[in-house]
Amino acid sequence: MIDPFGRAITYLRVSVTDRCDFRCTYCMAEDMQFLPKAELLTLEELERLCGAFIRHGVRKLRLTGGEPLVRRDVMTLIERLGARLGPVQSGSLDELTLTTNGSQLARHAQGLARAGVRRINVSIDTLDVEKFAAITRGGKLPVVLEGVAAAKDAGIAVKINTVALRGVNEDEFDGMVEWCGVNGLDLCLIETMPMGDVGADRGDAYLPLSLVRARLARRWTLRETDYVTGGPARYVDVAETGRRLGFITPLTHNFCEGCNRVRVTCTGTLYMCLGQDDAADLRAPLRAGSTDEALDVAIAEAIARKPKGHDFVIDRRGAAPAVARHMSVTGG
Ligand code: SAM
Ligand code: SF4
Question: Does 319 or 38 have the greater pLDDT score?
């Protein structure tokens, strides 16, 4: 799949549910309305959909949400997708991974490793138990940390995702770099993106990572690297810890030119760009018949419409978000 700007689409992110056991303040409103279950693709449909993308050249699949590990029987899907991992030449999948809040990780870590998952991202915005409960509106940090330890024990490499929030966790980044160093984890800092109405003045929480990086550079030796994962992060090595530190800066930096990915929601809506509203319905063609003919056509038409880039702009007055859907719909 090559889009109109010559970018090969090799990376699919799949949101397997819009539900979550947390309500992070920057991601969801406290009283989120979730989709009726009938609107969701079944696990079998999700597998078929992923299969079609793999056939069309997708090499890397990331499951996300909502919280992927709260979807009932999701391990069955993960095992089936894991069975499609294989050597590059065979047209199968290179990598199966997921982004999780870690709340269910302790009990699934071994199963994930058995299914062929080698790397995961775990979102942790603070190492302070009370602040963690406040940001996630009820999440338990010790449970998440147990999950991280279980994943490591199972041989899965863990990267911590941390959203940089002004006045909330901005005093913690030195501590997090250190903690990740001690525990053998990579760290990736993310700027807040204006997605979905979360009932707060998001403009206020926006903290440019250029500033965070300059502050970190006072304590740590940050060495430029050309390491790439196929995701949007730019990485440096932290000389003192030997770990990687990534920055995802959708607002201060244009990360679109090398974009190789598309996203599909749990209802089968394909978004060609995280920061644009244009979308293609894949559920109807998926349900149109027992063959994938209609689905293949719909995917090809959608890729031909992938836009050049996003239009995120933070409205300092905290007005309407640039994109109406929440991150938990498209999965980040
Ligand atoms: N529930 C899982 C988790 O939290 O890792 C997966 C889904 S979550 C939507 C994926 C990532 O998006 C998380 O790292 C989260 O911190 C990030 N995220 C959510 N809303 C965001 C926003 N408005 N701006 C930037 N990142 C956001
Ligand atoms: Fe849930 Fe992840 Fe959104 Fe937090 S960021 S509310 S854990 S989906």
Answer: 38
Whose CA is closest to 101, among 23, 41, 168? 23
Question: What whole-number distance in Å separates Cα of residue 41 and Cα of residue 39?
Answer: 7
Ligand 2 atom with minimal separation from the 27 CA? 3
**Residue nearest atom 7 of ligand 1, based on CA coordinates:** 65
Place of tokens 């911590």: 160
Average pLDDT value for residue range 74-82: 97
pLDDT given at position 314: 47
14, 23, 31: residue to mutate for ligand 2 pocket, most atoms within 8 A of CB: 23
- Looking at ligand 2, which residue's alpha carbon is closest to its atom 4? 24
Phi, psi dihedrals of residue 178, rounded to the nearest 5°:
-65, -50
- The CATH H-level superfamily of 11-330 is Aldolase class I (3.20.20.70)
Lookup: tokens for 184: 């053998």
Those residues whose C-beta lies under 8 Å from the C-beta of residue 274, and which sit 6 or more positions away, are 193, 195, 250, 263, 310, 323, 330, 332
**Where along the chain do its domains lie?**
11-330
Place of tokens 């204006």: 194
> Phi and psi (nearest 5°) for 16?
-90, -10
For residues 310 and 245, which has the higher predicted lDDT (pLDDT)? 245
Which string of DSSP letters, residue by residue, matches 82-133?
A: HTTB--GGGT-BSEEEEEE-STTHHHHHHHHHHHT--EEEEE---S-HHHHH
Spatial strand order of the sheet with 119-123 comes to: 222-224, 234-238, 243-248, 186-191, 157-164, 119-123, 95-100, 60-64, 11-15, 261-264, 269-271, 279-281
Q: How far is the CA of 201 from the centre of ligand 2 (A)?
A: 18
Q: What is the pLDDT, as a whole number, of residue 315? A: 47
Q: Cα–Cα distance between 160 and 102 in angstroms, integer?
A: 10
